[in-house]
Every structure is written in C-alpha cells, then in structure tokens.
Amino acid sequence: MHVIPLSAFNDNYIWLLHDDDGNAVVVDPGMADVVERALISRHLTLQAILLTHHHDDHIGGVSDLLVHHSVPVYGPVDTRIPQTTMALKDGDTFALESPKVRFEILAIPGHTLSHVAYVGEGLLLCGDTMFSLGCGRLFEGTPAQMLTSLDRLAGLPDETLVCAGHEYTETNSRFALEVEPGNRELHRRAGEVSTLRAEHRPTLPVSLREELATNPFLRLDRDEVIQWCRRQGVGTDRVARFAALRAAKDVFNG
Asked: How many CB atoms lie within 10 A of CB 7?
C-alpha cells in the first residue's frame, strides 16, 4: 500500500492510499481538483472516499468527485455529511477488495462530536483529533471526551503510522518544547521537523512510537508535563491537566 499526503489549502493533507494495480482510496478530500490531478498523474482509479468529520476543509471536494467517480462514501453518522453512503459507528469494520484494505472504526469525539478514525493496514487516519506533537481544538467536545479519544489512540500498536489532517508539526514542536524542554527525543524530532519543512517536505506520516515519546498531549502523566501543569495551577486531575495544556496551546504564539 502506498500512502501519499496531498497538500491542500494552506496546511491540509488529503490522504491518498493506492495499491500497485492502480486502485485508490482518498481520505478527507477537502478539494476535488487536488485529488483529480493526483489520480491522473499516477494513473489511478478511485474506488472509495473515507471521511473523518464534517468540516468543509475535509469534505468540500466530495460532491465534485462524485460527479466523475461513482464510488461509496464512508463517514460518521452525521447529517452534516449528506454525501455519505455508508454511515459508520464505533466498533464497525469494513473491507474493500480493490485496494485490499480493512479498517476498524474508532469514535474519537472532541474536535467534533461525531469524529471517527480509521485504523488498519498499519495506519491511523485520525483527521483533526491528533496531530504530530499536538491535538485538535475542541470545537464541539469536552476536554474529558478529547482526552478519552487521545488515550484510545495512544493504546494502538507503537508501529502504527499516524496520518493526521494538517501540517501543524513545526508550530506544535515549539509549544511542546515550552512544556517539556528536557525531552531529548522531542529536541531531536523538532530538529528533524525543521529540516523537513525547510525543504517543503511533509512531516507525516509519523509512527505512534515517536508521538508517545514527544507529543505532550499523549504524555500527561510524565513528570515534566505534570510540573508544567502545576505551574499553571493544575494538580492531580488528568482532565484538568489536559484542559490546561489545550488552553495554553490555543493562545500560543511561538
């Protein structure tokens, strides 16, 4: 399976998955023309569309794609995504023959209430719930919901490749270093990210193992993160620590 991040808008990634026989799946196509160009240049046939949540930068290209491609659209149970032909809920699984893939659905509310992730083929397609070195804003969910969602993702196999919906890693790295300045793995990752972005290359996908070692939102129980939270006046409650961390990132200007 080939896993390709397609750049869209300012910092979105549309994920294109395809096999060696030219069969493709696209995830969160906010722009149709980006997908069409990729399909044509790689001589691919679109077989399905997967959606993680209802925001327009993730579903805005679906209708235009369906004009030229008669394919199923998988997505969460949400009336705000009218193009969905197969609504999915937590615990569902589905498989495709071309390309040959099988995904499990995880409900991961927080960024939105109906947000889902697709897990399979060694991949985590997590939309805007988790980013490299960060997590999504809470537009609809609560801190408790988002923390539960991130804990679920953190429990996946370490070798899972994280395919997030945005290229936010460089800014996230600067915030993460404010929280954990003593984290040597984080310093290494931040340097790697800086080099990749200077060369206009994506920082994703990234292994969950790396995220567990560097992403402060997955490291709430680590001593340096706890100490940072205490300086914000937050003690032992994990949800409160997460809320403080997310609130600080919301106003971070680094």
From this structure: 14
> Going from the N-terminus, what domains does the chain have, and what CATH number goes with each?
2-219 (3.60.15.10)
pLDDT value for 236: 80
Give the per-residue pLDDT at 189.
98
128 is catalytic: yes
CB 111 within 8 A of CB 119: no
Which of 57, 69, 78, 115 is the catalytic position? Answer: 57
Residue 197: the pLDDT is 98
Q: How large a percentage of the chain has pLDDT more than 70?
A: 100
Catalytic residue among 58, 69, 78, 115: 58
pTM of the model: 0.97
69 is catalytic: no
